[in-house]
Amino acid sequence: MTEPVLIAGGGPVGMMLACELGLAGVPVLVLERLAAPNERSRGMAVNSAVVELLAQRGLMESLAGDGFEFPRAHFAHIFLDPERLGTRHPYTFAVPHSKVELRLAQRAEALGVTIRRDAELVSLDQDARGVTAVVRAADGTEERVGGSYLVGCDGGDSAVRRLAGIGFPGVDSAFHGITGDIAVEGGDKLFELLGFHQHDAGFFTVAPAGPDLLRVTTGEFDREVAPDTPLTRDDLYAALERITGIGLDTGTARWLAHWYAPTRQAERYRAGRVLVAGDAAHVHFPLGGQALSTGLEDAVNLGWKLAAEVRGRAPEGLLDTYHAERHPVGARACRTTRAQMALMHPMDRVGPLRDVFTELVRLDEVNAYLVEMAGGLDVRYPFACPDGAAGAEPHPLLGTRLPDAPLVTGDGATSVYRLLHSGRGVLLDLSGAGAPPAPSGPGVRRRAEAAAGWSDRVAVAVAEPTDEIGAAALLLRPDGRVAWAVADAAADASPATALRTWFGAPTAS
Question: Closest by alpha carbon to 136, among 151, 125, 121?
Fold first, then answer.
């Protein structure tokens, strides 16, 4: 029996990775040090990239009753207008991150994933055959657990990263934040402060968090407070008064937590059979949901590659593309969030620059650029141009994730993301095959025949052309990224090289 993949950390990133591996039929053991699921959440919204990633696996439906969609985005709390993009992309979705974690855990268990709580990883060893982790329970007892690989999704202070000897360089900014849920009665003065407010010393936000419950968050620059310092409602209101001069003494604190603004990134995302993802790989100022979207994309990028490796079907070097593709994305998230911090303090110096930015975002091109950056929608992997004509330019869709465009096949209506629900690759032919469900036409048949050897890993879908996708045929990796594309349905181009590159050798007939 195959040793399971061990995942340290049962937050959203760890659970997303567990779902991806479970979908591929790989045994998974999640080790979570908390004894019970986390019911509190610092994050209260997910950005467009997260919505797309969850929709690719049919997971957004389970979250529909936990939140709501709203067409807002921001860059350094300078508000943007996603509706002006004119392309099909989802909006930000307001939902506590704890709900995302819960729904992912439910899906993981349905896929056969084992989740062990009250299990803290305290040491690890690895060799060419696998990884052995020592896990400690709350009563102090320890157990050795074996696995084929170990992935650290255990947060910014990751034990996995430390034990694997992976460096975590970066900067720790002088910053302190408090976030809390305050129970109030109707008409409370806090309702007058709903929204986002920027001041010289920092900022604060007030937002609904439930019936008669408000989420209050403060952020102060040039202030340092130790993480183990006890917090009370008075501390939250003292921070609010330092920022605004407003004194309050209302409501009851249901939950309070510190938050900070370090910027750090793992030097490498892989050390032999140990890998890191999410906050274990990168931490940065949590603006616009970029921390969660970057982490979940790590999980979706890694999941199918690790599954192929465990099952012995990965082409040489596939697992190393995880670091090659995701490390630059993590580095960019660190840079862009630091840029946003620079636009927020000190206000007496950056105020004029914020005014200029506010004018610039009225330009459609600037608004679109920042919406896609803040929403995690602008990531494009630098793929080569396999099977293209000599000297041909790479297709503009290569390396991108398609929006969830509707499709019409011989079997009826579907969409791009419905085709990806199974976690397999998809050869999508849009050359106008019409009604028959079976491939028809010489180009369609040629491409379907080329993919026949990978039928256990890649599905073939034939659909009518659509103006929303600028290609006649595409190969989608399991993470939704375009790995091959042609613009002309009649082009004498085959996806065979791309199939070998990403899915390994074909199955012998």
Answer: 121
Same domain, 137 and 187: no
Give which of 54, 50, 4 is closest to 31, Cα–Cα: 4
Percent of residues, the chain, with pLDDT higher than 90: 80
Q: State the Cα–Cα distance between residues 181 and 204, nearest whole angstrom.
A: 13
Whether 29 and 79 map to the same domain: the answer is: yes
Burial class (CB in 10 A: 0-12, 13-18, 19+), 211: exposed
Average pLDDT, the chain: 92
CA distance 6 to 188: 48
Domain shared by 125 and 158, yes or no: yes
Element (H, E) at 262: strand 262-265
Query: Residue 177 pLDDT > 90, yes or no?
Result: yes
Residues 27 and 130 in one domain: yes
**Under a CB-based contact definition with an 8 Å cutoff, are residues 265 and 281 in contact?**
yes
Count Cβ atoms below 10 Å from residue 42 Cβ, excluding itself.
Answer: 17
Task: Provide the CA 381 distance to its chain's centre, in angstroms.
Answer: 15
Does 452 score more than 50 pLDDT?
Answer: yes
User: What is the residue range of 464's domain?
Assistant: 406-503
In a domain, 133, yes or no: yes
Q: How many CB atoms lie within 10 A of CB 63?
A: 19
179 in the same domain as 143? no
pLDDT digits (tens, 9 = 90+) for 106-123: 999 999 999 999 999 999
Residue 196: strand pairing partners:
205
> pLDDT by residue (tens digit) across 219-269?
999 999 999 999 999 999 999 999 999 999 999 999 999 999 999 999 999
Residue that is last in its domain, among 206, 238, 260:
260
Boundary of a domain, candidates 293, 308, 342: 342
| DSSP bridge pairs for 208 | 214
Cβ-contact 340, 357 below 8 angstroms: no
pTM listed for this prediction: 0.95
Query: Over the stretch 387-416, which tens digit does the pLDDT of each residue have?
Result: 654 456 789 999 999 999 999 998 899 999
DSSP 224: -
CA distance linking residue 120 with residue 123, whole number of Å: 9
Hey, what amino acid is at 120? E
User: In the chain, what percentage of residues exceed pLDDT 70?
Assistant: 95
* First-residue to last-residue Cα distance in the chain: 26
Which residues, including other chains, have CB under 8 Å from residue 306's CB and lie 6 or more apart?
A: 5, 21, 26, 149, 151, 275, 319, 322
Residue 392 in domain: no
Whether the CB-CB separation of 159 and 8 falls below 8 Å is answered with yes
